[in-house]
């Protein structure tokens, strides 16, 4: 099968389409004929050698497609079903992929939109679970305009939380459409948040980094009320929890988001699509930043 890979670290130019053996699903897994696969910031971190030292490597942790082989003891889907989910093998940007966690694609979604969901929904749900975000909570999301921030807003609102989100002014209407009260980030952010919530907030989720953990700690009343997805060094310095999948993933979110989508309580991100062979251009665009929505590779 054809797959995205690289045999040396570097810029987007090191990416290539390689031939790999067809993967086989293990117990509890399914193999799909991939129709679309998500592109994430972790992809360019891997490509730059910032995550794994081994070479060669493949890319891709989320995909959507059609089930074409079942692993042992799989009884909840059938060959020919449309599914989306996560691949623990990290090789989902390919013609075939094994999904370790999966769910039926909501009927209203196409493959590209479904492929944009698993990583963002799992990441946002994991952080909200770790924060204990529930009904009546006042939640501040720093860096709310991207795919993870947008998922966090909508999932928190669905839980009954009040959400304030930071973003550039050009993204404020987008945040409002998701159910958040927007504020601009940068100097004076704390004052702008307190203008909306005079007593501060109960919880804060840092999606973007930018060195704002001291402000979030102040607004949320202590480091125990803050989780960051983006500032590992700052988390260690300030005693804030850094959320990663190492402590367990919120894979239950993949099976839950479909009902929210079909009931109109969760709007998937817009997608910008590229062919599998256009993966280098997707990386160039993603690394430049300020991409609203999700970059997706379309296969076939």
List the helices and strands and how they pair.
Layout: E1 2-6, E2 16-19, E3 30-39, H1 41-47, E4 57-58, E5 62-70, E6 82-86, E7 96-99, E8 101-104, H2 111-115, H3 118-131, E9 138-142, H4 147-158, E10 162-166, H5 172-178, E11 181-183, H6 189-196, E12 203-206, H7 213-220, E13 226-228, H8 232-238, E14 241-242, H9 252-262, E15 271-275, H10 279-288, E16 294-298
Parallel strand pairs: 9-10, 9-12, 10-11, 12-13, 13-14, 15-16
Antiparallel strand pairs: 1-2, 1-4, 3-5, 3-7, 3-16, 5-6, 6-8
Features:
2 domains; Rossmann fold; 6-stranded parallel beta sheet; Quinone Oxidoreductase, Chain A, domain 1; alpha/beta; 300 residues
What does this structure look like?
With 300 residues, this protein is of the alpha/beta class. The longest helix is centred in the middle third of the chain and has 14 residues. The strands form three sheets. Strands 3, 5, 6, 7, 8, 15 and 16 form a seven-stranded mixed sheet that branches. The protein is built from ten helices and 16 strands. The protein folds into two domains: 146 residues, Quinone Oxidoreductase, Chain A, domain 1, CATH 3.90.180.10; 122 residues, Rossmann fold (3-Layer(aba) Sandwich). The mean pLDDT is 95. Helix 3 crosses helix 4 and helix 3 packs across helix 9.
């Amino acid at each position: 099968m054809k797959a995205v890979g690289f045999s040396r670290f570097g810029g987007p130019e090191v990416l290539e389409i390689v031939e790999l053996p067809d993967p086989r699903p293990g117990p509890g897994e399914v193999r799909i004929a991939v129709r679309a696969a998500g592109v994430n910031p972790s992809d360019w971190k891997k490509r730059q050698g910032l995550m794994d030292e081994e070479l060669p490597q493949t890319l891709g942790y989320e995909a959507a497609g059609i089930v074409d082989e079942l692993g042992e003891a799989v009884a909840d889907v059938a060959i020919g079903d449309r599914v989306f989910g996560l691949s623990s093998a990290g090789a989902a940007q390919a013609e075939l992929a094994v999904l370790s966690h999966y769910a039926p694609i909501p009927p209203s979604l196409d493959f590209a939109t479904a492929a944009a969901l698993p990583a963002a929904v799992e990441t946002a749900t994991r952080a909200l679970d770790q924060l204990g975000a529930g009904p009546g909570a006042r939640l501040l999301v720093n860096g709310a305009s991207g795919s993870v921030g947008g998922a966090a807003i909508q999932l928190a609102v669905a839980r009954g939380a009040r959400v304030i989100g930071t973003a550039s002014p050009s993204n404020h209407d987008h945040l409002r459409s998701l159910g958040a009260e927007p504020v601009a980030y940068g100097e004076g952010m704390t004052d702008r948040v307190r203008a909306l919530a005079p007593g501060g907030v109960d919880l804060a989720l840092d999606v973007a980094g930018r060195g704002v953990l001291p402000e979030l700690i102040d607004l949320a009343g202590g480091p125990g009320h803050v989780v960051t997805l983006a500032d590992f060094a700052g988390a260690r310095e300030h005693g804030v929890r850094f959320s990663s999948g190492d402590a367990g993933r919120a894979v239950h979110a993949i099976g839950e988001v479909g009902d929210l989508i079909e009931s109109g309580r969760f709007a998937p991100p817009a997608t910008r699509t590229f062919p599998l062979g256009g993966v280098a251009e997707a990386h160039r665009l993603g690394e430049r930043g300020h991409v609203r929505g999700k970059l997706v590779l379309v296969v076939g």
